[in-house]
Amino acid sequence: MKTRIHAAEIDDPSMVDEEEIRQSPFWDWDFAFDAFPDIFMAFVEVTLLVTVIGSLVAAVLGLVIAILIMVLPKPLAWVVRWVANFIRMTPIVVQLIFVFWAFVWMDALTIGIIVFGVHYATYMSEVYRAGIESVPKGQWEATTALSMSAGRIWRKVVIPQALRSTVPSLGNYAISMFKDTPFLLVIGVAEMVTVAGERGAPVFRTTEVYTIAGLLFLAASYPTAVLINRLEKRLAYAH
Amino acid sequence: MEFFEDWPQYFEVAINWSDRLLAGLWTTVQLTLFGGLLAFVIAVTLGLLAGSPNRWLRIPARILIEFFRGVSLVVLLFWLMFVLPQIWMRNPDLPFRDLVYNTFLLGVIALGLNYGAYGAEAVRASLTTVSSGQWEATTALSMSWSHKMRRIIFPQAWALMLPSLANLWVHLLKGSAIAYIMPFVSDFTAELNQLRRPTDIWFSHAFIGLVVYFILALILTVIMQTLEARAKHKLGRGPSLREILSPAPKAVMAEGSAVTVTDPPQDPAGPDSASAKTEGGVRR
Amino acid sequence: MPTPTDAAGIDTEAAASSSPPDTPVIEFVDVEKSFGSNVVLKDLNFQVAQGERVTLIGPSGSGKTTILRLVMTLEELTGGYIYIDGEPLTHENRDGKRVPVSKKEQKKLRTRIGMVFQQFNLFPNMTVLENIIEAPIHVLGQTKKDAIAKAHSLLDQVGLPDKADAHPSSLSGGQQQRVAIARALAMDPEILLLDEVTSALDPEVVDDVLNILRQVADTTNVTMLIVTHEMGFARDVSHKVMMFDGGHVVEEGPPDKIFTNPEQERTRKFLSAVLGH
């Protein structure tokens, strides 16, 4: 039977005890150090996990979608394309809730990984499509001239060339996905922001926990983005 | 398959709840419009500052941009909702006390800051994409910075930044769904979620909800493509709006009307946005 | 064809202008320009007198375009001084110290300089007329009525009287360049910089544009600094030709002498390459 307890119930901020807050410091280092390990563990165990596996799903499924759109007969390719557009242009939050209640037997974390993976696969498919289209015509002609089979052309020539240029985009989408992971709180996954809230709520201390969560997002995404940018420049020069 | 047997019930429930769903839809539209407006103002302001030759303007703008797009939207939302009001709790005499408890307003601000920071990068990148010849011509005519920005550079960058801004607006619409977790914000997702109570086959309504969001996203895309076509026509590229909307569309129509996909927001220090690829400057 | 005496004649006319008669309009003193470690110009010294028309020739990469761009402040001067009417353009020499001049002073000097670019650089978001009147109204503070009247007479002069309301994208390259010349002249520049203005044009319209510039040269005493590959044009309009190579002046002199009887082997080689004999 469908027995799910809905997770996202946020306290009304005006309901808190103002007097208590007024008497406590704005920032409490002891509490910050105390809460940090739990938040960090949630960061590693859930946020990073979803990001890494979700990105892998997106990378593989995106390629599948891109190839399907290119090789399927027109009407079918059109259907695949618009399903992808549909997924891409609708909110992850609603998708999460939808899948959460549609597949009640499934574990919420798994749902999270699938939804993020599929959602970003629809973005990645466009990147691959552009990558495949950017393989020079001469390459196709050369393979034809060598009488290579279609499967071989794809495996040996087109995909390796298309993949190279898509690495930076995959990285950028991984960062986007990373910053979207707090949406998981709507299906009750104990990701970083949820855990931060749970640590702060009982003692009416929110400043430290949400600041830590925000800084962890910054600390992980900014250097990664800088690295991806460098990689992208290097790939651009290599051409 | 209960899914198909239950269809009549879905519609019955949806119709009974139509008032609330429409009210929720209206809230979502408002979040998208006001959030989009704020994001646009922030994007242009920070984008211009980040593209300024003066480092005392440029560096603070860069820090703000990286900060507001680096922290997640949800963190920003919670920060505004739980941490910001503490300043007023500690200083009860500060003005605008009611505003910091207005969760709808906080939602608009969070959406505006987050997507505005992404937009700022698009604005900055599109300014640099305006061909160097145009910048040089303004120098040769001794135009001041504000003059050349207002009359020459920005109008040209506008056509280049619109596709990125269109993507971001759709992202903002999608992101606005998270506002339903805030108390007193009954957006479309919140009302959909309430539908779960009278029926145990809620997921099909969530699907209807997805379709509604999809249609909203398509509408935003069409609006932005219209703006883009107009902007391009003003630069002497592409047909005028009247030509596009004329009953006998020409070949160009196919290109202009195809609903293109959205890119996710570019990330800190990410590539100089898709707009960098579009052509710039004068026709040769 | 102008002769050196013409130039001298114009020099005396210059007494009417605000600066002392013998102050050069453009003066380069020990100018040095490098892009990173790549030195493009070094120890460059030359003067251009009021009303003088000087053509810079030389192989590509010899730094001639850089000279124009330095005068227009499109490039940053890395060493030495440039004076316009005796006033420092970017840096001044204060007791041997190289001090940047204020932006305000620089802007004031810059309004006396106009430039026509290889790629025209018309503003695509404005009509031809708007392109021409934009700066006179908003930079020089002319009234709209005056600016429009002047723009129309300039459009007559460049042979495009009926194109005022056209958009640049609807014009041919030659027409765009003629508008660009009108736009530069609308600012009443004391100095006009012409940077390979015909290089991007189809061969059959090159003469139209050059004839307009010849006419400008004949009817005004605007000082011109010209970079061109059109040797015939250079010969017709300039008082002085400077041959550049590797950032140095190889040879300079009146066009008749440079083109018919150059002293330097390097000049001879260059000319025979471009003239094809």
TrEMBL record, chain B:
Predominant location category: membrane
Matching InterPro entries: AA_ABC_transptr_permease_3TM, ArtM/GltK/GlnP/TcyL/YhdX-like, MetI-like, MetI-like_sf
Superkingdom of this protein's organism: Bacteria
PROSITE patterns attached to this UniProt entry: ABC_TM1
CDD domains (alphabetical): TM_PBP2
GO molecular function terms noted in the UniProt entry: transmembrane transporter activity
Membrane-topology descriptor: Multi-pass membrane protein
GO annotation terms (biological process): amino acid transport
Protein name: Amino acid ABC transporter permease
UniProt keyword Cell membrane, yes or no: yes
Entry keyword Methyltransferase: no
Keywords in alphabetical order: Amino-acid transport, Cell membrane, Membrane, Transmembrane, Transmembrane helix, Transport
Region spans: Disordered: 255-284
Transmembrane segments annotated in the record for this chain: 31-51, 63-87, 99-118, 157-182, 202-224
Cited NCBIfam families: HEQRo_perm_3TM
Family statement drawn from the similarity comment of this UniProt entry: Belongs to the binding-protein-dependent transport system permease family.
All residue ranges annotated as the ABC transmembrane type-1 domain in the record: 25-224
Cellular localization per UniProt: Cell membrane
